[in-house]
Write a structure and sequence with these properties.
714 residues; alpha+beta; 25 helices; tRNA (cytidine-5-)-methyltransferase activity; RNA-binding; SAM-dependent_MTases_sf; tRNA (cytosine(34)-C(5))-methyltransferase
């Protein structure tokens, strides 16, 4: 008998001898929407703070207790986003604006159902290119109205493909006011789950030049302290196919320096051009969607988080370059988490940092200026007006830095330049945004000069002569990531890839990488040159969770001269870099390939346009890219060309997306529960009632038996 059997046997015996206790009955579940949305301390606290004009207070509280409308934005490159916007307006918004919602039945009226409200899509005026929208689409409307249900299915499908991002309206603001340019080095300090990071990546790829849009000079470093949330962030970022993002896992308050190679050849810490500092907060601005905040709220939540928020923002300013911009934001209404943080940063910076007025960057957005005066309250709702009045029991919670600025320095700080967004103004959540610009080095901050390079060389030479004990390695939490191996000059697989796809000469082969050094490479990734330098310099001391976009996948096919096929996951990056294996196709060609998902019987080449057939004739078996350029949409897909057939490597939801853009039929991949219910009812109504037939047959049988009995009696 082995050790494993003994352990299992012992556990079994223990279970048999264990006293069986009666199970406790679980309390009945409470509907999440039925939670009490009321907190008198909340109202008392914010009335005293005067965050809302007195005449607007009732409207503010009423709005805070209502459900938050759904908001989303169209993502990806501008061409694709505008095409999808056109489809959404034409297919859904315009017909729905004319729709008369169905009336309630008597049963629904008796059950207390509310009538379906007409759909009113609202375009957020302050978001560029009309790509952000807000909808009053409720579950009740979706359940009762077929047209609303179809719109909901459209939103779900496009969200799964990454072409639509569900995001709270006010959450879209911080990346906008960062003013990102394609050459910027950007740091997102608390990035997960990644909606704002996705915006930063989109802005980084906003160049009009095809190559620069695919491979920008700048980078996005997306960091989060939670290891598991970093993988959620990775999933979100992969949809955007960016070779300029690197995801790290560090405590933002103690973010380590990320080094790079300077133009003079020396190595030093990166100073970022843009930093997003969306810090953890009490979240009382999210009460319209997170209803449990109502019961958990108390006046000291903000003071408890103040120290953490300050450390993160302070570290951000240290990593910011002179002339750079840092955006500090929270989804909190509390001045202790907002203006008190900004006040302390400005005082400590001593003129090296200033607030920026960004009202002109948000046309159409209603907001109020930041507070210049506020009060403190403890858990017992006792008002504390000055440092001298802090109760002894609260000395570990409150300090002098939490109090508002004195009148003599209030004008100098200009806290009114902060942006406060109140829910009742535009039917949103509550939010706070402050934009800081670094005009000169912080007090005590080291400024790198060319002379420092010589000093560093001397120190490096001296250090090599000293014997030092190696530092103890810290135990890292979470999964251990495989290292990154960039292609070297003698890379075995590169000549075959280069000759087969015709990689552009200006593209450095050393920007391709894999996660495997020995044996066959399964996937090949690509990054820009700055990401490569960061990985090379920092891989030993920075915890890198993910980087690079997958562009090639191993496909050991004997009929193809190249062992790697194109990956749809990285088509937006790789296709601008290759000069071969690309053919132009017609709209009808794409529709044929997208509507055929049979892996055994792909579309035959002879079914395609004659010009497409001619292009295929000149190509051998292997991976291929299909390019279609219409009047209002450009589509690029990857696939495979066989001897007699072609196929597109496109997932189901992506097929629906591309068919929508082409204005083709998508019914093959979509199910309509309303239509299915109608078909079922029609089928049932056309068939005879079997129960009636059975009764008739039974009655006839009984009559026959009765007749037989009578005849035998006679």
């Amino acid at each position: 008998m082995g050790r494993k059997w003994k352990k299992q046997h012992k556990m079994k015996e223990g279970a048999e001898n264990r006293v069986q206790r009666p199970k406790k009955e679980r309390p009945p579940t409470t509907n999440y929407e039925e939670l009490i949305r009321e907190n008198k301390d909340f109202e008392t606290y914010y009335k005293a703070q005067k965050i809302v004009p007195e005449e607007e207070w009732d409207a503010f509280i009423v709005c805070m207790k209502e459900n938050l409308p759904a908001a989303f934005r169209l993502t990806g490159n501008k061409n694709m986003a505008r095409s999808l916007l056109h489809v959404m307006k034409k297919t859904f918004f315009e017909p729905l604006s004319q729709l008369v919602p169905p009336e309630l039945t008597q049963e629904e009226l008796d059950a207390g159902e509310e009538p379906v409200k007409p759909l009113k899509p609202v375009c957020l005026p302050w978001y560029p290119d009309n790509l952000a929208w807000q909808l009053n689409l409720t579950r009740r409307n979706i359940r009762r109205c077929e047209a609303y249900w179809q719109l909901h299915q459209f939103l779900i499908s496009e969200t799964e493909t990454g072409n639509i991002s569900r995001q709270e309206a006010v959450s879209m603001i911080p990346p906008l006011v960062l003013d990102v340019q394609p050459h910027h080095k950007i740091l997102d300090m608390c990035a997960a789950p990644g909606s704002k990071t996705a915006q930063l990546i989109e802005f980084l790829h906003s160049s009009e030049d095809e190559l620069s849009a695919a491979i920008p000079q700048g980078i996005v470093v997306a960091n989060d302290a939670d290891n598991r949330r970093c993988y959620m962030l990775t999933h979100q970022a992969k949809r955007l196919q960016s070779p300029a993002i690197i995801i790290t896992n560090h405590d933002a308050a103690f973010m380590p320096n990320i080094h790079h190679t300077r133009k003079d050849g020396s190595v030093g810490p990166i100073k970022f051009d843009r930093i997003l500092c969306d810090v953890p907060c009490s979240g009382d601005g999210t009460m319209r969607k997170n209803f449990d905040v109502w019961t958990k709220w108390n006046p000291v939540n903000g003071a408890n988080l103040h120290g953490l928020q300050l450390r993160i923002a302070r570290r951000g300013l240290e990593m910011l370059t002179v002339g750079g911009r840092l955006v500090y934001s929270t989804c909190s209404l509390n001045p202790l988490e907002n203006e008190a943080i900004i006040q302390r940063l400005l005082v400590e910076a001593d003129g090296s940092v200033q607030l920026v007025n960004v009202s002109d960057q948000l046309p159409g957005l209603k907001f109020v200026p930041g507070l210049e005066d506020w009060i403190l309250m403890n858990r017992e709702m006792e008002m504390i007006k000055s440092v001298e009045e802090i109760p002894v029991k609260n000395t570990n919670l409150f300090n002098k830095h939490l109090f508002p600025p004195s009148p003599e320095i209030r004008e100098k700080l200009k806290l009114g330049r902060c942006v406060r967004i109140l829910p009742h103004h535009q039917d949103t959540g509550g939010f706070f945004v402050a934009v800081l610009e670094k005009v000169k080095p912080l007090p005590g901050e080291k400024v790198y000069t060319e002379k420092d390079q010589e000093v560093e060389k001397i120190q490096s030479a001296t250090n090599t002569q000293r014997i030092k004990q190696p530092p103890k390695k810290k135990r890292r939490q979470g999964f251990r990531e495989e290292p990154y191996y960039y292609f070297e000059a003698d890379e075995v697989v590169w000549p075959g890839i280069d000759s087969f796809y015709g990689i552009r000469k200006e593209v450095d082969a050393g920007l391709f990488l894999s996660r495997t050094k020995q044996g066959k490479k399964r996937n090949i990734y690509f990054t820009n040159s700055l990401i490569k330098d960061i990985v090379a310099v920092n891989q030993d001391h920075i915890k890198i969770i993910n980087t690079g976009v997958k562009v090639l996948v191993r496909s050991d096919n004997k009929g193809a001269p190249c062992d790697f096929r194109l990956a749809q996951d990285g088509s937006q990056v790789l296709l601008p870099l290759i000069t071969q294996r690309k053919i132009t196709v017609t709209r009808n060609d794409l529709v044929i390939m997208l509507q055929n998902d049979d892996m055994e019987m792909p579309p035959e080449i002879v079914t395609l346009d004659p010009k497409t057939q001619e292009q295929c004739t000149d190509l051998c078996t292997g991976a291929i890219a299909f390019l279609y350029k219409g009047d209002d949409v450009t589509i690029e897909l990857v696939g495979w060309k066989g001897n007699k057939s072609v196929r597109a490597y496109v997932a189901k939801n992506d097929r629906i997306h591309y068919l929508r853009l082409l204005g083709a039929d998508t019914s093959k991949y979509e199910k309509n529960k309303f239509a299915e219910q109608r078909d079922l009812e029609a089928k049932n109504s056309s068939e005879p009632d079997l129960s009636v037939v059975d009764e008739s047959v039974k009655s006839n049988n009984e009559n026959e038996e009765s007749m037989e009995d009578n005849s035998s009696g006679v």
